From TrEMBL:
CoA binds at R202, R203, G204, N205, T321, N345, S533, R593. It comes from the Bacteria. SUPFAM superfamilies: Acetyl-CoA synthetase-like. Acetylated. Deacetylation by the SIR2-homolog deacetylase activates the enzyme. This is Acetyl-coenzyme A synthetase. The keyword Magnesium applies. Residues 38-92 form the Acetyl-coenzyme A synthetase N-terminal domain.
Length: 653
């Protein structure tokens, strides 16, 4: 147990000592294959950022006109590659056709019902140009905002790229959101168009997307046009004359030869709404050149991309992970990407492994919440399939508990695949900290080290640097090309939320600790810290201890008010099937006590069938805090995936 010495620094109590070295076979062929190579890149980006990023941008993006200034930094505003003209769609698509690689597969797509489609880079270029021509015909111009609310079809990526091609700003809205959420987003961004589909396939059912959009459009006065892809068929799709048009009527007839428009580096590329911890969703703004470069280079470094890889990121394009690591990163790098439309458990719980086997996926990038679901569903689903094509595994979205890490490593990776635990945020545009798979020995639960260009800083309550092994607020001390440029229409919130606490530095909102080896450990959101008898504990460590018990599947830990201790520890637990009785309860308390110490032993443990999660799979601790304290639920629940699980928890309390 470490002592809390600094001003409100956070105690770190969980000790993870396992270390996994990359296999020499992997290292030999790796893009970054020596520690010295990384150190040189890192030092160059930190010490001479202008020279470093000038070379990176010139080498890795196409420029219609060269830039004359690398970074104009007037905190908190950064302009990157000032004076240059480029186009993210050109970099992601046309550049490969230009380079003679037009016949390479860009997208291998599989629909939930099992239908498939492939697109070479040349085919993608034509489809994107046709879509762009259609958008122009429908009155979309540079600077207009286009909302995209679609299933994971190739047309979703095509629509994003078509916007980028003409300088329109896309705002992708995850297709699980309600009409209310769509309308909020349309109105906040003054969207001029919505692109959607008739329906969406989900676990064998058809969800009527267009009907939901219609409800939203009744409250979205700025939207003039709705472009509708036919995906699920049926002739009952409501179409409003003068507003709604079919994709196949408008796009299919286009010639497909519209060239990508040269755009200023700082041209807005997209807005992506993310839920703040409370209140109204915020539109994170990313612009063209810096974001594009960051997505491409981080993809190449972290995923060790090689020409013959088959890469699959299981995220949805409705999240930043889909933007950066399904569309802009991998396509700019010329990768072959698998894209899957549906649920991981349809028609059965082995769908992912069937896809890995079928397409000989070499790199798999998924989320801890999925990994924990696979563990719960059972190993036999995995054992049915040959996963020997895999060479690298990635994780994103939240910390991956050491237990889930080990299962992913052994069961999916066959013990031979490095795991890259990638820490980043919607705001950072791309991965900030991650192992480099050829060189970084990994520790389960740590996102290891910063990428070149990322200068992390951990501070206490007063803004002073904390020592090694102490937890504190994680900030980023230098601008980087992929950083957010603002919150759409809300400069004040942008300044207050990210740039005020530790002036001049970007406040991530996460707590972290750096260990003696220079490895970073994310300790959860700043708001999630609990204070027990004056000790500040990170919820994630208590959760990891709980999950390391063989009968626990998932755990969420929050603080609740306690007269004596300040806060008591309340845990919500789902089990892998064992009966939830007092005996198990005692066992779990004892288990945490053994793993961490008496201080971290939960006061209450509640068994539940499911934990309330956001639609992107993050546990909603904010709501659980209310449940634990017996309070009325406060704040926004619009991004909640499963309201039922929460209602049930409340009833029981
Ligand atoms: C927050 C960002 C990153 C893209 C998808 C989510 C948490 C993310 C990790 C990780 C520990 C992680 C952080 C972060 N998070 N990745 N590898 N280890 N925590 O993007 O919705 O903007 O969420 O997710 O708390 O701040 P997002």
């Amino acid at each position: 147990m470490s002592e809390a010495t600094q001003s409100g620094s956070i105690d770190h109590v969980l000790h993870e000592r396992r270390l996994f070295h990359p296999k020499p076979e992997f290292t030999q062929k790796a893009v970054i294959s020596t520690v010295e190579q990384y150190q040189e890149l890192y030092a160059a980006a930190r010490d001479t950022p202008d020279a470093f990023w000038r070379d990176q941008a010139n080498e890795h993006l196409h420029w219609f006109e060269p830039f004359d200034e690398v970074c104009r930094w007037e905190p908190p505003h950064a302009n990157w590659f000032v004076g240059g003209k480029t186009n993210a769609c050109y970099n992601a698509v046309d550049s490969h056709v230009q380079a003679g690689r037009g016949d390479k597969l860009a997208i291998i797509w599989e629909g939930e019902p099992g239908d498939t489609r492939t697109l070479t880079y040349r085919e993608l270029q034509t489809e994107v140009a046709k879509c762009a021509e259609g958008l122009v015909e429908l009155g979309i111009q540079q600077g207009d905002v286009v909302s995209i609310y679609m299933p994971m079809t190739p047309e979703l990526a095509i629509a994003m790229l078509a916007c980028a091609r003409i300088g329109a700003v896309h705002s992708v809205i995850f297709a699980g959101f309600s009409a209310e959420s769509i309308a909020d987003r349309n109105n906040d961004a003054s969207a001029k168009m919505v692109i959607t589909s008739d329906g969406l396939n989900r676990r064998g059912n058809v969800l009527p997307l267009k009907a939901t959009v219609d409800e939203a459009l009744a409250k979205s006065p700025t939207v003039q046009t709705c472009l509708v892809l036919r995906r699920t068929g049926g002739d009952d799709t409501p179409m409003t004359a003068g507003r709604d048009v079919w994709w196949h009527d408008v796009i299919d007839k286009q010639p497909g030869d519209l060239a990508a428009k040269p755009l200023d580096s700082e041209t807005p590329l997209f807005i992506l709404y993310t839920s703040g911890s409370t209140g109204k969703p915020k539109g994170i703004l990313h612009t063209t050149a810096g974001y594009n470069l960051w997505a491409k280079r981080t993809f190449q470094w972290v995923f060790d991309h090689r020409e013959d890889d088959v890469y699959w990121c299981t995220a949805d394009c409705g999240w930043i992970t889909g933007h950066s690591y399904i569309v802009y990163g991998p396509l700019s790098a010329g990768a072959t990407c698998v894209m899957y439309e549906g649920a991981p458990n349809h028609p059965a719980e082995d769908r992912f492994w069937e896809l890995v086997e079928k397409y000989k996926v070499t790199i798999l990038y998924t989320a801890p919440t999925a990994v924990r679901a696979f563990i719960k569903w059972g190993d036999h689903h995995v054992d049915k399939h040959d996963l020997s094509s895999l060479r690298l595994l990635g994780s994103v979205g939240e910390g991956i508990n050491p237990e889930a890490w080990m299962w992913y490593h052994e069961k999916i990776g066959g013990g031979r695949c490095p795991i890259v635990d990638t820490w980043w945020q919607t705001e950072t545009g791309g991965i900030m900290m991650s192992p480099l798979p050829g060189i970084t020995p990994t520790k389960p639960g740590s996102c290891t080290k910063p990428l070149p260009g990322v200068v992390p800083m951990i501070v206490d309550e007063l803004g002073n640097d904390v020592d090694t092994e102490h937890g504190g607020k994680l900030c980023i001390a230098q601008p980087w090309p992929g950083m957010l440029r603002g919150i759409w229409g809300d400069e004040q919130r942008f300044v207050e939320q990210y740039w005020t606490d530790v002036p001049g530095n970007y406040l991530t909102g996460d707590n972290a600790r750096c260990d003696r080896d220079g490895y970073y450990w994310i300790m959860g959101r700043i708001d999630d810290v609990i204070n027990v008898s004056g000790h500040r504990l990170s919820t994630i460590e208590v959760e990891s201890a709980l999950v390391s018990h063989p009968d626990v599947c998932e755990a969420a830990v929050v603080g609740r008010p306690d007269d004596l201790k300040g806060q008591a520890i309340a845990a919500f637990v789902t089990t892998t099937g064992r009966e939830c009785n007092d005996e198990l309860l005692k066992e779990l308390k004892l288990h945490v006590r053994k793993q961490i110490g008496a201080l971290a032993q939960p006061d209450d443990i509640r068994f539940t069938a499911a934990l309330p999660k956001t639609r992107s799979g993050k546990i909603m601790r904010r709501l659980l805090r209310d449940v634990a304290a017996g309070r009325e639920l406060a704040g926004d629940t619009s991004t909640l995936e499963d309201l039922a699980s929460l209602a049930k928890l409340q009833e029981e309390s």
